[in-house]
Amino acid sequence: MVVHREKQFCCDTCGTFFATITYLKNHQRVHTGERPYVCGICGKGFGRASRLASHQRVHSGEKPYTCSVCGRAFNQAANLRRHHRTHTGVKPFKCEICNKCFTCNETLKVHLSAHSGIRIKRPRRKTVNGDIAKVPCEYCGRLFNYKSSLYVHRRTHTGERPYSCMDCGKTFAQKGSLKLHKVVHSGEKAFSCDLCGKRFGLASTLKTHMRTHTGEKPFVCDKCGKCFSQQGHLKAHHRMHAKIKPCTCDVCGKSYADRRNLKLHKCVPS
């Protein structure tokens, strides 16, 4: 039997009704700005004890919410829901000016500032001691001085890529990465290898290429000690340990941890 509880507790400020006095008190902190639950590690305050408990997972590293598609773990259910959109392609946040859609509300806010040309600066939050409070990433716990820096960093977790190349459609998380990519279309190759003469459009590509001559492998697996010359190869190797195989053959259905092994896989349709 479902019990319908009458909402009899009213907020004096906005007139909203609540079923219990506890819900009303929690709500009133929205108006008063009161944040009585304070993190003992970073000083960030919260209006509810449950919000503090959720936040503390940023520091503890606990990630109880796991993606059923790729196995990635998250410390908050909301972060898992946001991540799921990278698999489904759902973009529920729409710009009313140009109709462009986004997976995250924060990315939509950044996009809207591009239309107005105005960057809104909010006063930086302070801790209970009066110090400037750094903003933690809710995925990995890394601290940032500004929310704008956090928004850019967060895309490494969510997969959001708001900057698109007009020539090929490839998307990027940062505007600077898009600018570097445009060199590919211009055909300019200003960086030359001193050992073999091969030329590259980007200094970073030349740096990676140089490791084929030096044998340098700076990316080390923390589980088995195997070394790699490129970070992407290490990430693919990590998937092997996690037994995650996102790259699937369209012909036979066999799965691999990275695209390189899928390309090496020879499958002839019957």
TrEMBL record:
UniProt KW keywords: DNA-binding, Metal-binding, Nucleus, Repeat, Transcription, Transcription regulation, Zinc, Zinc-finger
Span of domain C2H2-type: 9-36, 37-64, 65-92, 93-120, 135-162, 163-190, 191-218, 219-246
Record's keyword annotation contains ATP-binding: no
Keyword Transcription regulation: yes
Compartment(s) of residence: Nucleus
UniProt superkingdom: Eukaryota
Pfam families named in the record: zf-C2H2
Role description: May be involved in transcriptional regulation.
Protein family according to the UniProt entry: Belongs to the krueppel C2H2-type zinc-finger protein family.
Name the record gives this protein: Zinc finger protein 239-like
Gene that produces this protein: LOC115807039
